[in-house]
Specification:
Length: 174
């Protein structure tokens, strides 16, 4: 591996590439099963986290950014995988100081959102989740839910996350 060439992190669900600094590394583990080596580590850090993860491992010279999504949480539903992955990818952008890339993308889609004015990291991550679902056409009405699309009501039930309502208000202007 050449440590001196420019590396890019590919954020699949957000469809964003981020140029990494020389000693920074981004690993997307994709869908992981219960037996994956990272699961025990994640459970130690956050007992509540069952659907996806974002980890930043900082060493003296190197930074490792890891994301992944639980196979069990997704259950084969592409819409849930997109939602969870985009949420974790937005956490990466936030930690890496690159939320401006997502802001520009949203502005091009008519969403004028400033992440700097949003204090809660989970709200910011949920806005990234809503953006990815929206641009991929994965949001539908409650009676139209299938493996590829999810309703906002179903997403709210799945996440059971207080910050999703606030994110919806900001993103959809409700």
């Amino acid at each position: 591996m050449n440590l001196f060439r420019k590396k890019k992190a590919k954020l699949e669900s957000l469809d964003i590439y981020v140029t990494l600094k020389r000693f920074d590394f981004y690993f997307d583990y994709g869908l992981i099963g219960e037996d994956h080596f990272l699961n025990s580590y994640i459970e130690e850090i956050d007992k509540q986290k069952k659907d996806g993860f974002f980890l930043h491992v900082k060493l003296p010279l190197f930074n490792f950014y890891l994301i992944g999504c639980s196979k069990n949480a997704v259950g084969g539903w592409k819409s849930l995988e997109t939602a969870i992955r985009a949420h974790e990818e937005t956490h990466f952008l936030d930690r890496y100081g690159k939320l401006g890339i997502l802001e520009k993308r949203m502005k091009n889609k008519g969403k004028n959102i400033s992440f700097h004015s949003i204090e809660d990291r989970e709200v910011r991550a949920n806005i990234g989740c809503l953006y990815a679902l929206d641009v991929q056409g994965r949001i539908c009405e409650d009676n139209e839910v299938d493996e590829d699309r999810i309703s906002l009501g179903s997403l709210r039930k799945f996440t059971q996350d207080y910050s999703l309502d606030e994110a919806m208000e900001i993103y959809f202007g409700r």
